[in-house]
Write a structure and sequence with these properties.
about 260 residues, Rossmann fold, three-stranded antiparallel beta sheet, about 20% strand, globular
Length: about 260
């Protein structure tokens, strides 16, 4: 069972737990992949990392193995990556995506795109411009999956007086480093101080956006993101200007709306 309602400008779908919400999100992705395949078209997905989308990826892997869902017509672009970090480091988003999704499906490796945490500093600007160009050349993102940080960030677009529009290098807030310290021996000082991230404009250019959030810790930022006001201090609130966005929440994440 789920409840669908509209809070201000953001449609919200509430599930009793992460497992049920993840199944719904995976089915949405699978349906899009299959519709694109039937039309002889490529399906371009924007992907996110973290504990919440991990359950969704597990369901997609199950659908691939048990139901024959193919990813041969899929091109992916990940939201972000720590900087600097080695691509095969335990904590890298590159490794996360391969461990939880790419290594278990039939996607063409050439169709996988993740910001490169190993890029030399002097090449970061060019790399970010190239990332934007690759998205454009792929035809744009059909469906962007998002998580949300406890401070309201999407991708690694941190709260601030302004928000970068395109893919960029960003300095992470100490609150974000604390939240992400689990894989770094619970030591925030070991979390890279910077990251590469799609910008808010890049995210908003996706034709459809689905944000998945779970847990009581996300309740306040969800309340602010759906409150009817655009605030650079709550980057997720910018989703309210998008024409096709949906939030998939568990009861705890939705408890304040």
């Amino acid at each position: 069972m789920n409840m669908v309602d509209s809070f201000e400008k953001l449609p919200v779908r509430i599930y009793p737990d992460l497992k049920e919400g993840s199944k719904f999100a995976a089915k949405e992705i699978a349906a899009l992949i299959q519709a694109k395949k039937a039309a002889g078209a490529t399906c371009v997905l924007g992907l996110a990392t973290g504990s919440t989308p991990r359950s969704m990826y597990a369901e997609l892997v199950r659908m691939h193995k048990e139901e024959g869902l193919s990813f041969k017509n899929v091109v992916t672009f990940n939201l972000d990556e720590y900087y600097p970090i080695e691509n095969d480091a335990l904590q890298s988003y590159n490794r996360f995506m391969h461990v939880h999704l790419f290594d278990h499906i039939d996607i063409d490796p050439a169709n996988i795109h993740i910001p490169n945490g190993e890029i030399p500093k002097e090449r970061i600007k060019a790399h970010c411009l190239e990332y934007e160009k690759m998205i454009e050349e792929a035809g744009g993102i059909d469906l962007q999956i998002l998580g949300i940080g406890n401070n309201g960030h999407i991708g690694f677009n941190e709260p601030g007086d302004d928000l970068p529009v395109r893919t960029h290098r960003v300095r992470l807030m100490e609150s974000t480093r604390r939240d992400n310290a689990m894989l770094f021996d619970n030591d925030p000082s070991r979390v890279p101080a910077e990251a590469l991230s799609m910008g808010i404009g890049t995210i908003l250019r996706a034709r459809r956006i689905v944000l998945v959030a779970t847990g009581e810790k996300k309740a306040e930022c969800i309340r602010q993101a759906t409150g009817g006001r655009l605030m650079t201090r709550v980057p997720a609130s910018m989703l309210q200007v998008h024409a096709d966005v949906e939030l998939i929440l568990d009861r705890e994440a939705a408890s304040l709306i």
